[in-house]
Amino acid sequence: MTNPSLSQPLLQLEGINKSFGGVHALKNVSLSVQQGTIHGLIGPNGAGKTTLFNVMTGMYQADSGCFNFDGESLSLKTSPQVLAVKGLARTFQNIRLFSEMTALENIMVGQHSQTKTGIFGAVLRTPAARREERLIRQEGYRLLEYVGLSKDVADRVARTLSYGDQRRLEIARALALKPRLLALDEPAAGMNPTETAQLQDLIRRLHADGMTIVLIEHDVGLMMRLCQRISVLDFGEKIADGTPEEIRRDERVIKAYLGGDDMPNSGKGAMPIAGTAQGSLQDDHAGTTP
């Protein structure tokens, strides 16, 4: 795989501002995501992470700033649907599956946006449409297997799946769009330790296969293990950007998370080891990459 440090940014946001009434949610925020990396967004509650994520994926329209994807300058009004066609797909903090559809049907919905035969071919059941439908179904089974779901899950209604399996299914549906950048919004939220470990393995596999990933997650230890680069927001501003090791030792980040200058430390100017995601930026595997 290409050395991420030598590649061009796949996604660039510059000078992004976003307000809701009198609340300035984002203040002149810039973000550069290198192709082939896992890039994390962290920060205390209310820091602006989700707002930036929603601007990046077309869910919110920024008030001002510049948006560039894969070398193309895009309007701040670019819709999620257009971004998906260009190669940017996302999942949501609150799972948004079609709950009454089967697992396979959920994936096929994503794939149908990529079909070439069109609505008339589908209605008339032309040979080309039937052939494409077979290929879509085969790809759906492949994606289920890729994210760690067995073929037995394919015909189960989505709402009957376990929470962890629904999370994996949502990732599979996003992958059906054949994205170049996959944006994951708190994918480990609500997962038990076993499910989180399985998710970590899946994200590493995606990265090894060349996927560029932007990740929001409250589990800071997970972020430290997975990400090559991390951007930190606080009160709508980007206060730090660097490798996990750099972020772990950044005094501005420590202050943002622990809320003061008088704080315990590990003796090396780093965040203390702690059991809560929001209270620690140090981890046994801090700074490692997949």
UniProtKB/TrEMBL annotation:
Protein name: ABC transporter ATP-binding protein
Residues covered by region (Disordered): 265-290
Family matches, as PANTHER family: AMINO ACID ABC TRANSPORTER ATP-BINDING PROTEIN, CONSERVED COMPONENT OF ABC TRANSPORTER FOR NATURAL AMINO ACIDS-RELATED
Keyword 4Fe-4S found: no
CDD domains xref list: ABC_Mj1267_LivG_branched
Family matches, as InterPro entries: AAA+_ATPase, ABC_AA/LPS_Transport, ABC_transporter-like_ATP-bd, ABC_transporter-like_CS, BCA_ABC_TP_C, P-loop_NTPase
GO molecular function: ATP binding; ATP hydrolysis activity; L-isoleucine transmembrane transporter activity; L-phenylalanine transmembrane transporter activity; L-valine transmembrane transporter activity
Domain ABC transporter: 11-260
Native source species: Aquirhabdus parva
Pfam families documented for this protein: ABC_tran (PF00005), BCA_ABC_TP_C (PF12399)
Signal sequence residues: none
Keyword flag Transferase: no
Protein keywords: ATP-binding, Nucleotide-binding, Transport
Superkingdom of the source species: Bacteria
